[in-house]
């Protein structure tokens, strides 16, 4: 969401704005709360002057400016742990938030996750976070294509016979079973090659 706002920061950001970007489905309010907490938008969803000024900075200037916003928002944590807060593990952060806000482990874990994301944007990735793969935010462009399935090896008359025995045990013969077999024919094969392939199938593939 922050990546989107850095490109185009509307005057007001609401749950509907998050929904239009296709982010955090059914959890849009959590995104708004996080942006409000760090001071990017106010309680009415309007962009703050500070948030706007930081978000229009160049990529090499943004981290240090955003770091100041994070330290201000989490002043209690930094008053307690100082600069060590930038390197605390998720478990340590969860414990801190649970103790401070009297929250459950689930909520404490979410609070820790938000802080980790903020510190990452502020240029304070831990070694563990740097090792984790990250995907750049991109607008959705329709449904994702399913992963391609491995194609069956082309049948060849020179290879050993292919047999599929689909006989079912006596007590299970009331079941219906459908098998789809895909054969990839060589593009440069001759008529004789194709005839041999189908001849092999007729001779060796049976039910």
Write a structural description.
By secondary structure, the protein is mainly α. Helix content is about 45%, strand content about 0%. It contains ten helices and no strands. It has helices spanning about 1-5, 15-20, 30-35, 50-55, 60-75, 75-80, 90-100, 105-120, 125-130, 190-205. The protein is elongated, with a radius of gyration of 29 Å. It starts with a helix and ends with a helix. The model is unreliable at about 135-160 (pLDDT under 50).
Keywords:
single chain, 207 residues, mainly alpha, 0% strand, elongated
Spatial shape: elongated
Order of helices and strands: HHHHHHHHHH
Uncertain segments of ≥5 residues (pLDDT<50)?
Answer: 135-160
- Main sheet attributes: strand count, strand direction, barrel closure: none
Q: Mean pLDDT, rounded to whole units? A: 79
Q: What layout of secondary structure does this protein have?
A:
Elements: H1 2-7, H2 15-20, H3 28-37, H4 49-55, H5 62-73, H6 75-81, H7 90-101, H8 105-121, H9 127-131, H10 191-204
